[in-house]
Amino acid sequence: MLLFQKGLNYSQDGRGNRMVYHLVGCNMRCPWCANPEGIKAGGTILTKGGIPRRSWHEYSVDQLISEAVSLKDMFFDGGGVTLTGGEPTLWTDEALSLLDGLRREGIHTTVETNATSPIFDKFVASTDCMIMDFKTPNAHKHLAYTGVDVEIVKKNISYALDNHPDVLIRTPLINGVNTSDEDMREFVKFYTSHDTSHARFEFLKYHDYGAVKWAECSLPYTMPPDSFVSDEVVEKFAKYYIDHSLVVIRT
Amino acid sequence: MNNISTHYTEIAKKLFLEERAIKRLDGWFIIREEALRYEAEHQDEPVAIRQAKGIQSAIRVLPLFISKNSLFAGTERDAFAKSYALINPNFKVSTFNGYCDPTAVFGDIEPNEEFSVERIQKVRAMTEQTPYVSQLKQVYESCEMDTCEVAYFVEQVTGHLIPDVRDILSRGTDALKVDIDTKMANASEEQKINYEAMKIALDSVVLLASRYASIARDMASTLEGEERERFTRMADTLDRVPRLPATSLYEAVQSFMMIWQMMNIEQAPNPFAFSVGNADRIFEPYRQMSNDDRDLTASYFKHLLVFFNVADRSWAISQNLIIGGRDEAGNDLTNLCSYALMDAYYDMNCPQPILSVKLHKNTPDQVYEEMARFFFTPGVLTPSLFNDDSMFATLRRAGVREEHLKDYSIAGCQEPLIMGKDNANTTNTWLNLPKILELTLTDGVSLITGNRLKAPDENLVGKDSKFILENIRALFYRNLVSYVTSMAKAGNGASKALSNLRVPFLSTMMGGIESGYDTRDTMHQGTQYNGSGCLIHGLAILADSFVAIDDLLAERPEDADRLMEALRTNFANDPELRGYLLDREKFGNNSPRVDAEAKEIASVVSDLISNTRNYLSNPFRADWSSPTTHLLYGYWVGATPDGRLSREMLGYGVDPLYGSATGGFGLRVLSQRKLPYLKFSGGYASHIGLDPKYFNADTIEAKGLQLRDKILSPLFFYQEEDAPYYVYFNVTTPDTLRKVLANPKKYAPSGVYIMRIHGTFVNFLDLSPDVQEDIIKRLDLGSTTC
Ligand code: SF4
Fold this sequence. Notes:
Chain A is of the alpha/beta class. Chain A has helices at residues 61-70, 92-104, 120-126, 139-146, 150-163, 181-192, 211-216, 231-243; strands spanning 2-10, 17-23, 45-48, 51-54, 57-58, 80-84, 108-113, 129-133, 167-173, 199-205, 247-249. Chain A is built from 8 helices and 11 strands. In chain A, helix 1 (61-70) runs parallel beside helix 2 (92-104). Chain A is globular, with a radius of gyration of 18 Å. In chain B, the strands form 5 sheets. In chain B, strands 2-3-4-5-15-14 form a 6-stranded mixed beta sheet. A 5-stranded mixed beta sheet of chain B has the order 1-9-11-12-13. Chain B has a two-stranded antiparallel sheet with strand order 6-7. Residues 26, 28-30, 33, 35, 38-39, 85-87, 114, 133 of chain A line the site of iron/sulfur cluster (SF4).
């Protein structure tokens, strides 16, 4: 498996202290992506300070499992391993056997995904916590911004809501993309057509920390300067969600 | 706090401010001047006796002073000159010259009416004539080619020991003199001379106390009320101690100060890094005698802490005071004095002495809860932490007897020594592995200056770059053996030069009364344990470089010449190759291959050092630490095959190179767990920067338990032996420190913002920009947060 980043962090990508593996490759092309070096399958060459640097390192499934096992005493506060990316579900067989191996060792597993996998049910069955990024329920906008049809995303999120006991849905709030009242209503309409009693929702304010990396990847950063959102917008969303009995978390 | 404790605290704080207002330090000069005068006039006396009497004569003439804010008499100010090699505000990495000139200190005195240029010059000239200085000069000349760009460095070690003050405190110097008389009956002539010198030295400390007693009595006669009482008590106490046993905590602290002052005067100028040892255990019996409560005890200790601070910048003299810990059966040894010392440290926040805390798997929760205030209050000192469980195993392996294990404590920053029994010459030799790697790759030519620093290896005639790279380990270790052999010879030479300066007073607290020999004797062992230190630099760079070379040979062997050329030109024309090298696996990321390499290097080099003998045929001790010297020595190392640029700093201690461990605390700990701690008999250094937001408990005390559970348990207590036994933290972020620098008035209104650097506290605001930047860089949150 190719990873472009790995490391422990606390409560940012799942609960407790977690080892987070960032897998290379993504099928979306979000222009706001904070990890552009993780998009291209096979990895990217970044140029940092004039020095060309490889974005990835290669590991076997067994290596990662044994690493996680040796970290067990540091997975406190309910921690464990999170697979993220890029899009981790693109590594179908490897990712699934990694998840199964971790669970066999009693390690809590989380997958952070854009919910496009055609074998999503298998991931849902193999993962203790599903974190799904949902950019917009609007078909036109979803296709325009990510390059992927929203229907598969909706189908998979619906499946997870209906079948998984621990779901977190994250939405990056980006001015001009998904922050209008209509966007807000569309999100909530979609969620409330499901049982959301075991789901939590989180908003991530747009930031441009990834811009430097886009440059390092020799790619143009196309996000307009007015993409930032105010706290008021986040609060507006949070209130609206809460008013519709959705659980909003802040990490 | 009751009234008297509050009052003692107030005057301790005033006393500290008074100390920080002192600009000139001339006492050491007066001591040397008078001692040398006496010695010149008494050439007929045996050296040991002549020197002891020289010091006694100096104590007779040394100007003494007691402040109205003092609770105890005494100062160590007169032992120190106005500079400190590394951590003074003028420090620049480019100024290191590979030579430790013992007469350079005379440049510290600014001439004035009292201390004229001629007067200073005369004492300097007399010092230059001493056997000590001339022998030391010869040593440096003999190894100049090796030290000029720091393949290694050697120095004579003053201070850096842990006297056992307990005997003098509990029995008094009179009783020790009786012991000496008994031993003299069966002593050799040489021992008799040493014993005579020890008795003179014991009389000298009594003389010092009596001079202070009369000053205190004179002051009392002019004062009223509490002040009169305080100075009368001081005078009465100084009439008794240290000549007689201390019978209360107050007397013990006063006695201790006299002992400490005398010990420092004996080694003036600049006896760095004398350490108190297990302070809570030393003082607790006396606290129990006087039944003092925690507040009163803490207020006495506040004065004790001020005593260790010298003049305007409270320089890092690297004195260490340790609390907590266990005995050989695993029983916890924490007592009320442990907590009172913490109270005193927290309230005073003085830069000296260093606070160290010994931990073990059964350390009570209360220690973590009370210690937490240091870690979670910005700008307050933080203790160094030691893991007794693992340390005991390391010391046991090094030959320390079971009953002495609990008496280990820390000399200087992190070097473990047995209190009162161990002369370890801790900073005697310094080894720069990356420089030796450089000289192996170039066959002896410096990448920094182009100078040839070593004769060409005849086995390499006609060999190409690929051959050198393919055989890099064998060639490196062969060179290393040769450098270590020369280093040990030079280091032993420095120790022999230093042995010209006898230390009879110190020797009475180091087993000298038992052995009849001076602690510094290089022909006879005066202490139960003896060794010499070797501070080894550059573990991570060496491991990363070996792995990068292997990868290059495996993946692109045709680039062997290209690598050599890139190193010569500091990668100026080859960013692609530098990128390739930087992308290799690095130590600190739980990479099995590079971690195994680091373990192997640490093991082989530690064994090599341990198999090298000092002047008494005792082992050198492998100490993987770099007290700011990772900056200095890095400045003399050219580009390295791990992609590091020329003159950049080396890694700190056993830590990953700055910026190359990116997976956070957990992966870094997994890498560092693999090192062979049992072989690190001389100590090692490791620093972890922690982001305060990682500790989210509601109370400071609960954060202390989180520190234990989240950081210390996985770091220290995952196994009993061969586990890390030392760490220091800075709980802050680079951002915060930059704010402090930009706006010190806001973030440090008192002018003091304590940070840790290496094992010692420093006032961050007093540091030179080079060192400030080093601290900020090494917070390196990518490698250290969780
Ligand atoms: S789905 Fe996530 S990883 Fe993929 S491009 Fe979008 S933001 Fe980046």
